[in-house]
């Protein structure tokens, strides 16, 4: 039997980037996966088709995670379909980079509202389902920017640092009810978002990685599967960064 057989996962931002391989890895481990998308329905459908082609099961759900009522409806859809929710992966995230003194208010708000407020709403309603079951796990996808900061990403770094604090609070609040919470902190990962950065910047950052290479989305996904299947890992901030030493 696969380690996550019988469990149900909801992965936000699963229509591309890190989200697709995270959803695929959870499905390969046996979970039924709800694939969330905000705008890119084709990517979400492709992710589901790939899972089903491998004999897995899942569903596609849509919500603007900046809005509480939309998130509540999304979680209700998943629970109505599967009668449970065991794993929440808060992966959805955006960037709106710029130097702090030049950053527009809407650039700050959009990143905070998607990357942090959205995770809060998703955790709030997923936890209600998990509390009824007396089991479950919340896995928040943070970033090395949330630990070390990054010039030109004050909004993104603040949101990702906030995710770590949110993780640790959930771990303390709900451990007694059989619910765990952990954060994964990817470093420089080979995704479309990282490829948009100039090669000069990437080369400089790669020099700070002990392994001297970017990570792959699958390497991040496997870390999430590890956390999803181990009930004794709680309140952990797991760096998947190749050994970054700035």
TrEMBL record:
Native organism: Sulfobacillus acidophilus (strain ATCC 700253 / DSM 10332 / NAL)
Keyword Metal-binding included in the entry's annotation: no
GO molecular function, one term: 3-oxoacyl-[acyl-carrier-protein] reductase (NADPH) activity
EC number: 1.1.1.100
Protein name listed in UniProt: 3-oxoacyl-(Acyl-carrier-protein) reductase
Primary enzyme class: oxidoreductase
Domain Ketoreductase: residue ranges: 7-191
Record-level GO BP terms: monocarboxylic acid metabolic process; steroid metabolic process
Keyword Oxidoreductase found: yes
SMART domains: PKS_KR
Family affiliation: Belongs to the short-chain dehydrogenases/reductases (SDR) family.
Alphabetical keyword list: Lipid metabolism, Oxidoreductase, Steroid metabolism
Gene3D superfamilies named in the record: NAD(P)-binding Rossmann-like Domain (3.40.50.720)
């Amino acid at each position: 039997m696969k380690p996550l057989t019988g469990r149900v996962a909801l992965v936000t931002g699963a229509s591309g980037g890190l989200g697709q391989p995270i959803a695929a890895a959870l499905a390969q481990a046996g979970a039924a996966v709800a694939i969330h998308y905000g705008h890119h329905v084709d990517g979400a459908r492709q992710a589901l088709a790939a899972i089903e082609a491998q004999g897995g099961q899942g569903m596609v759900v849509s919500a603007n995670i900046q809005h509480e009522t939309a998130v509540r409806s999304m979680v209700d859809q998943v629970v109505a379909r599967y009668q449970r929710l065991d794993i929440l992966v808060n992966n959805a995230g955006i960037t709106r980079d710029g130097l702090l003194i030049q950053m527009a208010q809407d650039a700050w708000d959009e990143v905070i509202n998607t990357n942090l407020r959205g995770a809060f709403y998703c955790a709030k309603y997923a936890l209600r389902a998990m509390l009824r079951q007396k089991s479950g796990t919340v896995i928040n996808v943070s970033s090395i920017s949330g630990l070390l900061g990054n010039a030109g990403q004050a909004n993104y770094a603040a949101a990702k640092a906030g995710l770590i604090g949110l993780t640790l609070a959930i771990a303390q609040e709900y451990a007694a009810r059989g619910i765990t919470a952990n954060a994964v902190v990817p470093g420089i990962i080979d995704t479309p978002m990282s490829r948009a950065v100039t090669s000069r910047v990437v080369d400089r950052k790669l020099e700070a990685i002990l392994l001297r290479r970017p990570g792959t989305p699958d390497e991040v996904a496997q870390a999430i599967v590890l956390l999803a299947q181990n009930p004794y890992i709680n309140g952990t901030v797991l760096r998947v960064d190749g050994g970054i030493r700035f």
